[in-house]
Amino acid sequence: MTVDQLRAHFLVHFPEHTADGGDAFFSPGRVNLIGEHIDYNGGMVLPCAINLGTYAVAAKRSDRRVRMLSLNFEEMGVIESTLDTIAYDSEKDWANYPLGVLFTLMQAGQEIPFGMDILFYGDLPNGAGLSSSASIEVLTATIAKTFFNLRLTPVEIALLCQKSENEFNGVNCGIMDQFSIAMGKVDHAVLLNCDTLEYEHVPATLGDYRLVIINTNKKRGLVDSAYNQRRQECDMAFERLNSVFKSRPLSALCDLTPTEFLSVSEVLEKDSVYKRAHHAIMENYRTIRSKDALSEGNLLAFGEWMYASHASLKNYFEVSCHELDVIVDLSRPLRGVLGARMTGAGFGGCAIALVHHAHVDHYKEAVSKGYKEQTGISASFYIAEISGGTGLV
Ligand code: GLA
Known about the structure:
The protein contains 11 helices and 13 strands.
């Protein structure tokens, strides 16, 4: 769908804006290159914004009504509220994400004097773990900022959107998704220290290689409860390790180096809590080393860290699944593939692979075939372009 087509749709649904036409915005989705399940452990993550995402055409109103329509859920029609009556309502389904953001902005003291009409359209596959919710959240905050000159930095926007998802939508996510979407930069990954929020844009110079996204197209169930359980296990590990680690005060699980962890890890029984901590601390180390490899143009090493990350997510954090493992296992022996891993929360969703451009077609063919044979499901493939953050288009 082109932006002009979206504008046309907008005017069909909201014809009172024919004179001004509305403003068009784009908000990316994200893939995480490495640093999985450690944003909520104060770790380092290396995500990047991608050119698949959510578009909006929006216009200010002169009253306090808010009307929203998603072309992805057109059958649900226009969803309405007023700025003064926003409350979570399961009937409003997807619209709870943008409404939650408006609510959270106002709760934080931002002045939103007028309502707005917004038409959304997303080309991110639904429920695929590419952060469609964070994409629409940051998009809504950016629309409000643009219309009402809100004094908000992109980092503040990311934090408020995370708060909204945590409190309004009851999803206990970390900061990685909203941050990478608000702070995305073309051809750069965002190296983010989730403990301090210090960040750096790292050139993602992939040369002859392409970042291929492979959607398992597996229906994900119970992701939220398993996600919360992992968070609790990590909190327990931190509490126990912190009680015996005396060298300095620890701010988070990932504050421990691998050597420090090994020196105190006997306090944890060799059960799932130990395994979660092992993953988190080693993944943090892998992210730091991967960032160095990327900066040095050593994609071979980067690919190996990707495989190692996947193995740890599978064996220690236990958030992979048969479908994701099949994709990684099929990828490894193929020509031109440097690395592959699951990306995002897991239990389905997407994997990513670093594939030489000359071998991409063969890669898709071989993985498609093997995946279908082993799982009975057809995978989908996207070549990710690393995009800028949310803004006007
Ligand atoms: C989801 C969450 C993020 C992060 C990832 C796992 O995408 O929203 O905060 O925890 O899972 O790395």
